[in-house]
Amino acid sequence: RAKTLGKACYQVFDTAMHQHAQTQLRLETDLRRAIERQEFLVNYQPIISLTTLEITGFEALVRWHHPQRGLVSPGQFIPIAEETSLIVPIGLWVLKESCQQLVTWQQMLGGETVPTLKMSVNLSVKQFSQPDLIDRIDQFLEQMELQGHLLTLEITESALMDNPEAASQVLTALRDRNIQLAIDDFGTGYSSLSYLHRFPVDILKVDRSFINRIEDQDNGLRIVEATLAMAHSLGMQVVAEGVETQAQALQLQQLGCEYAQGYLFSKPLAAETAAGVLAQPPAFSDLLSRR
Ligand code: C2E
Ligand code: MG
Ligand code: MG
Ligand code: MG
Predict the structure, then answer these.
(1) The EAL domain covers which part of the protein (predicted)?
(2) Residues of the chain with pLDDT under 50
């Protein structure tokens, strides 16, 4: 009896696996055509200074508008894009698109003032190990007459740790161009801050899972506190990811965290919506006033 049950279970499992594999395969085929069919778009999530409560920049987040499936989340297609290396052309497209957007917004905000609005773009491990990455970035910056210091590249800890030698070279090249480097999802990898210090890291983005637990007075709070202290002593600035509540934001402000990003302030926005927000900035100070 157990044997038949086992077999039935196996078949159910097998069918599910098979369906999953087929879906992945179909997505992969579709992904290959998605660039030329212009199915990607970029959403922009504001990054807010906890000191001035102004928008200091945006993070570019790619979206795939699939003709049949509708919006496919990056969580679903980025892993496939990584595996197939399609992330390389997709990532370059995102980089170009978001840099162009930044230049447009700088012009909209008035060319007279010193441009300070920044753009933060995610780089995948695969992209990071492309030998022509720096050449492409140089091309974009030159074409768009964009200053390097207005661009931040976000990479995960594992991108650094997988190949520290290659990483070191790329990072030096980025530093030469004044491009900022941010470590994304900090705390979810296995690196230590002291190891990170060997690389020219400017910004630490503390993962949402830690910000979530900041109201836990014992562990949660202490971990964020310790991370901030170490980051600051190593000369890095800190962005808190996934800030969803006023209590979290107030706590982070009190701890001296420089920047915050999260649904409390804004979800990722379509480009036109983000432009509207820039033209008429919301009063984020209302969100943080103690009552
Ligand atoms: P990430 O770089 O850590 O981006 C932050 C993610 O958290 C985004 O998810 C954003 O929508 C979400 N988020 C922001 N604030 C909140 C909040 O308050 N609460 C919650 N629950 N979530 C929040 P998204 O856009 O789905 O992107 C997921 C991941 O996909 C990104 O994580 C990044 O690793 C990757 N990704 C997105 N765009 C690109 C890209 O252009 N290139 C590469 N290589 N990866 C990308
Ligand atoms: Mg990111
Ligand atoms: Mg992140
Ligand atoms: Mg994250």
Answers:
(1) 24-282
(2) none
